[in-house]
Amino acid sequence: MLRSEHSRIDPKRRTVLDPKKRQFAQPLYKDQEYNFRLNLYTVPPTAEITLEEFEEWAIARLKILSELETCAFRNRNGEETLAYMTPLLDKNLPLHANRTNSSELQAERKKDHYSHFILRLAFSSTEDLRRRFSRLETALFRLRWRTDNVVERQEFTNSLDFNWEMVDDKEKVEMADELRVMTELAGRKAEDGWFKVEWERVPELVEQRKVLIKRGVAYVPVREQMSLVVTEFTKRLDIALEQTARALPRLDEDDRLSPILAHLSQSFTAPDATYDTSSTPSSLHPTANNIDQLAGHFPLCMSNLHTTLRQTGHLKHFGRLQYTLFLKGMGLSLEDCIAFWRRSFRGMTDDKFNKEYKYNIRHAYGEVGGDANRRGRGYSPYSCQKLLTEALPSVGQTHGCPYRSFTADNLVALLQNTGVRDGEVLNGVREDLARQRYHVACNRIFEHTHKKEIKRVKDDGLWGPAELDTILHPNTYFKRSFMLKHLDAEKEAAKAEG
Amino acid sequence: MPDAPAPEVAPEEPPSTAGAAVPTEDDLKAMEDMLDSDSDDEFTSSMPQKEEEEKEAPAPARFTDPDVMRAFYARLFPYRHLFQWLNHSPVPSDDFAHREFAFTLPNDIYVRYQSFPTADLFRKQCISMIPSRFEIGPVYSSNPRDRKTLRKASLFRPVSKELVFDIDLTDYDPIRTCCTGANICPKCWTWMTNAIRVLDAALRDDFGFRHVLWVYSGRRGVHAWVCDARARCLDDTRRKAIAGALELLRGGEKKLTLKRPLHPHLERSLRLLREPFSTDILLGQDPWADDTRAASLLDALPDAGLREALRKKWAAAPGRSSASKWADIDAVAKTGGSSTLDTGALLEAKLGIILEYTYPRLDAEVSKKLNHLLKSPFVVHPGTGRVCVPIDPRRVEEFDPFGVPTVTGLLNEIEAWDAECGQEEKEGEKRVQDWEKTSLKPYVEYFRGFIAGLLKDEKRPREEGEGMATDF
């Protein structure tokens, strides 16, 4: 596939083993030339950069990646993502094409190159981070591929050591009939060109009979090149990340980099869809006594916790934490929250409750704990993203996102229990689950259960599109649901204030 | 000399190989029971389902008679050829030594993970265990017999196996009118002939394979073993890709939807199948003779007007043959039975019907997995007593499944030969092999020729081939 020449260490870059020579030698760095805008990131950077640059560049790339993730999360299609990302990319991580002859070309590409490798270090530690990083980097690569100049892109692909060969004109004439059939089969008028690879390289295309195969060689239209390069990009990155993870414990460094790296990976996991707890609807007055009434507005993840709590009189640790934070986000005061839990744990002595449970609730509210915890007023309520990326609940645990942790059949049964019986909606949910679009399924249910109200606010022009955006946080779900069902009360409250 | 130990292939026996000691049948069984009972389902095998079907038709006792089978394994089975075929070199290598064999013993006990360092040891165990059949699995990364002693389970994984295909006439039952189930007749065998032609062309012309061994499965189907180095090292994704590319009615779907223009592979298949369709299918099978079957033909046609016109026409003339009915479609369409008729759609539907009734029906699951086991060539089919002989794809039309030698017939032929020419034999310098005295001879010779071609390719670009393998 790719020749393995690049795994050979350049003599200039080889480690000098003689300690004497090593001590007094001038560092030998091979400054990299960046000929192309796109980069497969095969060679790690070796030149020196300042600590500030190290952090700054990494943060810039991190910003891009998390925005990309948001796009995927909000289900934006390719065009929308491109439109959304272009200004962000220009600001944080610009990459200009060769033909612009920008004086910044090399510097931009250097920044791109270094930031990629810094984030590799930061995100190789766990399987989860690696997967996310590789997914987002692939998305970024694809985005750049699409925006790249056609000629330069071709030069880039030619520079890669792929064993593919363009079909020359002579052969095109010889194979004209068959190639024409393949073009028509794909529903196109003409192809830009064809290249030949061993059929093993394109198994998906072979399986769907989308390529012509002759004597073991597949004739692939040039437009499929992207998928090949992207597959290769992902494959290599995955391997490299694994290797990085293994090498990480032996990272030869003082303690300057590790805090930065730790910080980077932390901010990557932190939820980006935050919920502003201060803006609660004015007619909402949650107390320890009315949670049961409010539970009708809960998203499935929370109503599931609530019913379990009511049925068994108990919840396991992560369930309690998730639920407590949600209640906190709803605006339930600490006292009410403690009272709520105290009453919910039927058959538990006060003594046991105070000893084993109260502290955690207070901790979540930032009443106790370390300075950081108290200053930050405890943890913030979990977002959908957080719930979707956490480990799956094991037996007896009920936290997490039910759309993700339940099997489709169980989930549909659960939804039917909550009163969703529309076959079309349930089928839609099943499809979403099959495509792992859990938040889409949840939003689908929301739209179904609030159909009337949403229509009303839309027709009356009460709410703009921003207020009906995809829900990415359980508390948003609750708040929106509550407000939709109390439209009149809200209006009156607004009037009274006004 | 297939069943005599070849002097150059007799290395010292590795002490770890349990089979090398030639244990008695009972010993082995006990040992296997002890070792294997818990984890034999690690890798899939086609065995269980097949076994059940075989049982439906009780076999005449004499095929499975232990003495007959012992004589077969002692005198007729071409061990050395099998060894060379799987070993890819004259010197015993891991290709053979790490290859899994799975034996079905006469009492239906299934013994997996057998392996043998040499052809001779393999022969010894066959004679002592007299399996009613055995299957060939993949080459593993370490000796299958040692799999329980490895420190890490991951050290034991399948590495390579021939790309295999399995076509079975039972899959044609929905469109087969002459026989059902395990029975076959010359009429339905034509499907196999056509299947071999179509797939052989695709494997050679499209995928560039050169060593495709076709083997009669002993009763109602054929197997293909693609033995090229490039095919052997394919992983599951790529096997699945080939199977998918060659499979037309995917996963048992009922109707064909074709996109035109046809993919070159389908176009070529259609070229090969048009003629058999009009002879073997329309005349031979007469698939739409009765009304219910004719209705399924109508269902496949577009345009309600056309369907109605045809239905009336056929109802008026009961007993019309399929060939006439097929011709009627165009005739009615031309005379303008319907004003809304889309001729393109009709053509597509007709092509779809031709392919549906003629295109090979693969048991694709067999091809998709590297670790799937498949019955070895030259074993005796326990239900029919026929030997699973190779089929020469260049002369596929000459192959007659009913003329395939049976184990009892072969043993009689040896006796007849010995009685006739036994005297001369002693004078001759070279002993005549038992298989040479029988009608198995042409098949073994074909197999030998096949292996010679394979070994020639193996020897030359051994490095090249492996370089390619690691390249993917």
UniProtKB/TrEMBL annotation, chain A:
InterPro entries: DNA_primase_C, DNA_primase_lsu_euk, DNA_primase_lsu_euk/arc
Source species of the chain: Trichodelitschia bisporula
Cofactor: [4Fe-4S] cluster
Biological process, per Gene Ontology: DNA replication initiation; DNA replication, synthesis of primer
Gene Ontology CC annotations of this record: alpha DNA polymerase:primase complex
Binding sites annotated in the UniProt record for [4Fe-4S] cluster: C301, C384, C401, C442
Name listed for the protein in its UniProt record: DNA primase large subunit
Free-text remark on how the cofactor is bound: Binds 1 [4Fe-4S] cluster.
Function: DNA primase is the polymerase that synthesizes small RNA primers for the Okazaki fragments made during discontinuous DNA replication.
GO-annotated molecular function: 4 iron, 4 sulfur cluster binding; DNA binding; metal ion binding
Domain of life according to the entry: Eukaryota
Keyword tRNA-binding: no
Positions of the DNA primase large subunit C-terminal domain: 296-478
Keywords carried by this UniProt record: 4Fe-4S, DNA replication, DNA-binding, Iron, Iron-sulfur, Metal-binding, Primosome
Pfam families, per the entry: DNA_primase_lrg, DNA_primase_lrg_N
TrEMBL record, chain B:
Biological-process GO terms, alphabetical: DNA replication, synthesis of primer
Name by which UniProt lists this protein: DNA primase
A GO MF label: DNA-directed RNA polymerase activity
Enzyme class: transferase
CDD domains from the UniProt entry: AE_Prim_S (cd04860)
Acidic residues composition-biased segments: 33-43
Family annotation (InterPro entries): DNA_primase_S, DNA_primase_ssu_euk/arc
Alphabetic keyword roster: DNA replication, DNA-directed RNA polymerase, Metal-binding, Nucleotidyltransferase, Primosome, Transcription, Transferase
Signal peptide: none
EC number: 2.7.7.-
Cellular component aspect of the GO annotation: alpha DNA polymerase:primase complex
Region (Disordered): 1-62
Similarity field: Belongs to the eukaryotic-type primase small subunit family.
Keyword Transferase listed: yes
Entry keyword annotation includes Isomerase: no
